[in-house]
Structures are given as C-alpha cells and as structure tokens.
Design goal:
The protein is of the alpha+beta class and 519 residues long. The strands form four sheets. Strands 6, 7, 8, 9, 10, 11, 13, 14, 15, 16 and 19 form an eleven-stranded mixed β-sheet that branches. It has a five-stranded antiparallel β-sheet with strand order 4-3-2-1-5. The chain starts with a helix and ends with a strand.
Length: 519
C-alpha cells in the first residue's frame, strides 16, 4: 500500500518529472523506475521524505521509493534532527530542563554542547549502547528571530513569549506551514506573567494596570503621582525585540490605546533588568514572574477596590490579568518520532514537575475548594452590581459549594467569541485528561461568567453560550471518548462573580471566562 501511495503521489507530476533536471540533492525513484522525483531534501522523519521540487514542497512515503544522492539519509542508522529557535527565556532554562527530564524518563543520555553564545545542541543517546538517536539544535535569541527562522526553513519549532502576529501567520500559511493559529499548531509549554517591580523599600506597593500603562507611556513621570516620594520615575524594560517587551505592548499598552515611551531604559536580559531596578531606588520595571531577583513585586489594583497578586494559582487560572503563556509553535509538517515523543512528554505529569522546579508555572490541573477562594469571593461580592439579585448569588453558592474549581479556565480574545491562545491549549489538556479517565465517576460542570457591560439577562445568556461553546470544543478534541456518557453539565451566572473592575479592558477580559468545577 505504501508503494502505491507513493506512486499515486508522483503520478500527478509524471509527465514533467521524467524530464532530466539539473543535479539536485536527492532523486526519489519508484521501485519499477517509472517515476522519479528530483529535488532538495528538506527533511526526513524516519518514515517520510520532505523534498523541495520545482512544483513545490512534497512529502513522500519513504517505504515506496528508493533514494539516491549525496543528501540521502542513512536508513539503517537514522538520527532524528530537530531545530528549535526563539525566546532565550524558554530556550536557556525551560527547554534544557525538559529535555533532560525526557531523557531520564525514557532511559536516554542527554549531552549538551555549547556552540556559541546563541547556539547549543543536545545529543540523545541510548544508555545501553550509546547509539546516537537524535540531536536537538537550539538557537536562543528572541521571539522575532524564532519566527524568522521558521519562515526561512531554518527551524522546525518556534519558542515564543507572545502570540504569533497576523503578518507572520499569513506568511507561514503562504509558505505551506499551515495556519499557526489553528488547533495543534501551538501549545502552551508553561505559564509566566508580567509583573511590575520596584527597588526594595519603595513605599509604593500597588498599581492599577491603567496607571502602569501610563507610566510606561511616559504620561506619569513622578512617584508623587503614585503616592510615593517627589522623585522622577526611572522606567526599565527588556529590549524591543524580546517577547516580554512585545507582550507588554500587546497585553498592557494596546488595550489602553498607548505605546511604549521611547525613553524607556532597555536591557538585554531579564537578569540585567532586575539588577538595574534593584540598584535604583526610583526605578520601576516590568519583568517576568519567574525572574524578579531581589525586587519588590507590586500588587495589581483597580479603581473599584479589587486587588490581585501574581501567584502560581492566579497565573494558572488567568485570574491575574497579565498572564504570559510560553508558547511552542509547530508547523503543519511531520516531525521525527523522537521529537513527537518529546512533545507528548511536555504535557505529562512528570514534565509539570520539571516545569515547577525550573521556576515557571506548570499546567497540571489543581482542584480548589470554595474555602480556598476567600479573597476571590470577597472581591467578587464587593463588586456585584445592583442588577444582580441576591437569590442568584445564593444559587451560585449552593451550586458551587459542594464542588471544587479546576485551575484550568477558559477565556476569550478581546471583542471575540473565539478562545484565546492559552485556552485553546487548555482545551487539548482537558480533553486528554478526560480521555485517560481522570474524571470518570465524577461530575463536571462548565460554568460561564461575563463582564458587567449590558443588562444582567443578556450577560447571563452570553455566559451560558460561552460555556456551551467550551464544552463543544472539548467534545471535539476528546476524540476517543463519548462525553455524552459522562456526567457533564453546563451552568452560568453571568456577571454575578466578577474578578476585576469592569471599567477597564483588562478587568472585562478577566471577567469573561468559563470555569470548570468538579465533584
């Protein structure tokens, strides 16, 4: 069958492919010699050849053709190769920790070789006989460079601290890499957050997202405007090409209609940023939650009185409004089996332990009882509007009190009914857990909430629709199990449990969500 598939694929190009071509890397020939495919070998995953021809990129089943030419791989001693490029924050700490954890779990030996300041390689060998199984090549620079390498066919996977830009995705689609915003084209490897930091001892300990944006836009320039001393504010941030800096523009500045001030002091690394803020008593910066050094981290507040501190649980649930997912973007092409096994491992329980030990926030679902959410419910009750009847609040408590909230939450893109990037990854994660029987014999409830814009009745209906939409997405992703046979229900409470102030885009984004509760 494999031979027939390869022959059928090549038959479409038969008339022209039999014409002699200039010398190329490889020639793939059907067993009877009637069909030849000449081209440059772009990759081989152990089963399929990926070849650039005059007709475009072709993927050919290796069992149906013979390969001739200097670039043909050694089929007997095949070595998997994977090229990864992008964010240094992900590449320098998190990915090495995961590769070494993967090797330990599967009985491989991982050897790291430093090539230069931005390149290093991991070689994976069989522990028993030291056979080389694969090499993972890393280029650690920034998110922009990662996507540029992917588009130039110099990387198989991108490490990113931000979502892919529309222009980047359009170019990727045109290059045959698929829609990188679609399902399974990206995954959240771990979670981080953007946090405002000051020097130790600075009397200002809280700031609203709106005011923070104005500080970084150069609109607020003196600490006295923030309740501090009469002194100019020194503003610090990572370099413009870093994923963190771009995420600040996308997630903090853009909702406020502002841009980053050109006078901001820029730093090449997270360590340099936090050190500069530590040494300047009048400095403020935005750093990653995973790397704050000796600085003080400010609490986020709102004009309505709510407060949220960045922490493992608030980041994991996206209740903290400046959560920063750490992405891997994977094009629509076959990767070597070793690479596919590694990507599967990154979602395993053991990998989540590695992620926590590396200083990042993992995605292992946690169950939170209603008693563990005192601050959350206190904030919510204080923000409930006049349109919410006390009976609805009472119903909320009665329904949710016997249950526990999963840390897996779902939120939506601004102004859209589409799930955001982290939530798309959460759909896959929850679906896999259901498929493996984690929630067998348990009740699952998808609970929708809304912001307070509009009437309470309309918001309740929208929240109900979103909860049904999330359930439908999980059903579609859980291909090996019939969710209708499980105890899964949907409920909604509209604007009855706000998490943040509705007077800002950040607050409304936090409030529009679907939570998962289990019993």
């Amino acid at each position: 069958m494999a031979i027939h598939r390869a022959a059928k694929l090549a038959a479409f190009f038969f008339l022209l492919l039999t014409v002699p071509l200039a010398a190329q890397d490889v020639t793939l020939t059907s067993p009877d010699g009637s069909v030849e495919i000449n081209g440059t070998l772009l990759g081989f995953d152990g089963d399929f050849y990926r070849v650039e021809t005059i007709y475009g990129e072709l993927t050919v089943d290796g069992t149906g053709v013979n390969c001739a030419g200097p670039a043909c791989p050694d089929l007997q001693n095949y070595v998997a190769q994977l090229s990864v490029s992008g964010s240094a924050t992900i590449g320098e700490v998190l990915m090495p920790a995961l590769i070494e954890g993967f090797a330990l779990q599967f009985g491989y030996v991982a050897e790291r070789t430093r090539v230069n300041s931005t390149h290093f390689t991991y070689s994976l060998r069989n522990k028993a006989d030291q056979t080389l199984l694969g090499t993972f090549e890393f280029r650690v620079t920034n998110t922009d460079e990662g996507f540029a390498d992917l588009l130039a066919d110099e990387a198989d996977i991108v490490m990113s601290l931000r979502e892919i830009r529309l222009t980047e995705n359009r170019r990727a689609t045109e290059a045959g890499l698929g829609d990188l915003t679609g399902q399974n084209r990206s995954r959240v490897l771990a979670l981080d957050a953007m946090v405002a930091i000051t020097a130790p001892g600075n009397p200002v300990d809280a700031i609203s997202p709106a005011v923070l944006a104005r500080v970084f836009a150069g609109r607020v320039t003196n600490w006295s405007q923030l309740g501090g001393p009469d002194a100019p504010i020194s503003v610090h941030l990572r370099d413009p090409k870093s994923g963190l800096s771009q995420a600040v523009q996308d997630r903090l500045m853009a909702p406020a209609g502002l841009v980053l001030d050109s006078r901001i002091l820029r730093h090449p690394t997270n360590k340099a940023l936090t050190q500069a803020v530590t040494n300047d008593p009048f400095a403020i910066g935005i750093s990653s939650y995973s790397e704050t050094g000796n600085t003080d981290v400010l609490v986020l507040t709102g004009t309505c009185g709510f407060s949220l501190r960045a922490g493992r649980v608030t980041i994991k649930t996206e209740d903290y409004p400046l959560t920063a997912p750490m992405f891997l973007y994977i094009p629509a092409r076959r990767l070597p089996q070793l690479a596919r096994e590694f990507l599967t491992y990154t979602r395993s329980p053991s990998a989540q332990i590695v992620i926590r030990r590396a200083g990042f926030v993992d995605q292992a679902p946690e169950e939170l009882s209603i008693n563990q959410q005192g601050d959350r419910f206190a904030n919510a009750i204080s923000l409930i509007g006049t349109e919410i009847d006390l009976s609805e609040v009472k119903r909320l408590v009665e329904v949710l009190s016997p249950m526990k909230r999963l840390s897996t939450s779902f939120r939506f893109r601004a102004g859209s009914s589409a799930l955001d990037a982290q939530s798309l990854s959460n759909v896959q994660q929850l679906a896999r857990a259901i498929e493996t029987g984690v929630y067998d014999e348990r009740a699952i409830k998808f609970v929708g909430f809304s912001d307070g814009q509009g009437s309470a009745d309309t918001n309740h209906r929208i929240a109900q629709q979103r909860a049904h939409a999330v359930l439908a997405a999980v059903k579609q992703a859980a291909e090996t199990v019939d969710l209708d046979e499980l105890n899964i229900t949907v409920d909604a409470f509209g604007e009855a449990l706000p998490m943040a102030c509705d007077d800002s885009a950040w607050g409304r984004q936090v409030n529009r969500r679907v939570e998962v509760w289990v019993r």
